[in-house]
Amino acid sequence: MLHQFTTSLILACCLASALSAPIRREVPQEHSHEPFLTSVRASLASNNPDGIVDPVFGLLGNAAAAAGAGKIADATCLQQATADQAFTNAKVAGDVQGQVDALIFRALERNSGSVGLATDACTSIQAVNPEIAAIQQHQDPASTNAAAINKSITLELAKQIAAVGGNPQDALKAGTFAPGIIGDPTAKGNTCNVADDLDGCIFTQNLLVPDATADEIDAAAAGGNADNGNADNGNADAG
């Protein structure tokens, strides 16, 4: 019991430190898709050899993410590594929804340094699961070519979800917000960040902008063209 309490206390302190650090960044949105954090957290808990502190760190910029990265040396790859391990664990458990949620988590937008700033692709770590390797994270909707990039990511996500036996329409849930104003000194964008909204504030506040139509999702899942949007999207390593 004491060990459990100590572990919980350390986790709480790490989260508080990382999420309150005075680092210049886009207004936080790491809790906008809370159901997928919850699911990935549960999957990761069954086997976490890299000691990743919590899935939420994978959605932070690199400076803040490093505090919860465990043995993952490259914070740019923390989101992928978290999704990859959660996917592996869900697959071992025969948990299709857990696999789907890990795929969606991998596709979520990370916090970036400002409105319009994209985040880098993970290049230093190769995902074990090809389904995870096929997916990149969404980009800030105000960044260059974001609409096309994010649509491509969502269509690839639909293909991977269908491949594991999930509902490909769930890929739309990985979508992000309406574009903010580049140069906005508040860095607010059009985001939300409510940790205790277990249904995800992007859904309950109706803030999600779909990347594709239902028909486009169905076509991608059936084997239509949907590249994975792998692109050099600039550098964003702020917290």
Can you walk through the features of this model?
- The protein is mainly alpha-helical.
- Helices cover 40% and strands 0% of the residues.
- It has nine helices and no strands.
- The model is unreliable at 1-26 and 226-239 (pLDDT under 50).
State which percent range the strand residues make up. Answer: under 5%
The SS-based structural class is: mainly alpha
Which outline best applies?
globular
Unreliable spans? 1-26, 226-239
Overall mean pLDDT: 86
| Strands, total number | 0
Instruction: State the helix count.
Output: 9
Helix content: 40-55%
Distance between the termini: 33 Å
Radius of gyration: 17 Å
H/E element string? HHHHHHHHH
For the largest beta-sheet, the strand count, sense and barrel status come to: none
Summarize the structure.
The chain is mainly alpha-helical and 239 residues long. The protein is built from 9 helices and no strands.
Please give a handful of descriptors for the protein shown.
mainly alpha, 239 residues, disordered N terminus
Write the layout of secondary structure elements.
Blueprint: H1 2-20, H2 34-45, H3 62-65, H4 78-92, H5 96-107, H6 130-133, H7 146-163, H8 201-204, H9 214-221
